[in-house]
Amino acid sequence: MLEHVRQFDPELADLLNLELGRQQDGLVMIPSENFASPAVLEAAGTVLTNKYAEGYPAKRYYTGNEFIDQVETLAIQRAKQLFSAEHANVQPHSGSGANMACYEALMQPGDKILGLNLAHGGHLTHGSPVNFSGKKYNFIAYGVEKETEALDMDVVRKLAIAEKPKVVLSGHTAYPRKMNFSEFADIANEIDAYAMADISHIVGLCLAGEHENPVPSHDVVMTTTTKTLRGPRSAIILSKIIDRLQEKYWPGEKKNLAQRIDFSVFPTFQGGPLEHIIASKAVAFKEAMLPEFKGYQQQIVKNAKALAQSLMDNGLRLVSGGTDNHLMIIDCSKLPVQNGKVGAQVLEKAGIYTNMNMIPFDTGTPFKPSGIRLGTPALTTRGMKEKEMKQIGEWIAQLLQNPTNDALIAKTKQNVKDLTTHFPLYSELK
Ligand code: DSN
After folding, report:
1. How far, in Å, CA of 71 to CA of 77, rounded?
2. Is the CB of 303 under 6 A from ligand 1?
């Protein structure tokens, strides 16, 4: 690997190797990060990057798409099979772009949509006022209950009935509990709204049956492909073909829901698709069809529960008291680090990578929030199990309780490095 880069651009090759070393020697615990397989990486670095392919298979604006069409069709077929979806668009470059396209296909500017509060686990594109979503659409936020820090679906239902949004959006980036997708779909049906889910974080858990797969019950579902799916940095949209609310919301419109989704992706927001990344997604979908993928997802959840228990046993408070999925959020407000920013920085010094995060009813700010978000997908890919999670939980708790103890930080960094040598990563890339 890197033979040509090394020869032509040693400065860049050195940086790439340093990043490889960082990933190998540290504990990647940001719950939205993972390690793609060598096959996924290889497919992303192919001659497909050379090709312009505006349009869709058999409907392109350039010639020379004989094989590109087959690659994209393969990715579409695999996505549909994997998720039991009627329609799949595999072209979105990213999760934000995919959400943008979904909203465009379902709403007019100013339309009302229900989404999870950012501080309670929602995403920037779920209506943050600084994001296109909050500027272009009328987002009404639902949130967790103060006492449980979990969603109460009766409260969500009441809000939906009172507000009558055109879209009910479920899904999250920082909610440690299960989402009741069928109940979200029921609520949407009850009020004649579209049911949309963003399953970017938990997609693998949904595929493995650890969480409910919302695709059958929802009009539109989108996901990034990077996270628990372990594919390249990208996204896809899955949808029904027929719009059950077409007469009500789109009278006179000729395009069905699937066609509106496709049109929203191209030509509305994107030009040439990244066919090399689409090829890489096809590889990731094939990997997700293997029986061992299910075992991997089950282990992610077991590891998250073991890590959460260890953190709590060592005196830390977790939002909602634990986790049902791959992530958890440590409340740092009463710890010596005082906030998640300082906390995540202390952990980083020891080679443990997490991210600062708002917690429900946070008195901090997005740049100095009270929480640290962390999870187990990447460590589970390395082969770590409950025993390692218990140990890592102890290290994290010690560091957050003794953030200025440089000797402890140095010792933990060495312990982290020693641990990682037992779980080799990308040995073939060195
Ligand atoms: N940035 C991603 C995450 O970390 O959850 C979501 O876009």
Report:
1. 10
2. no
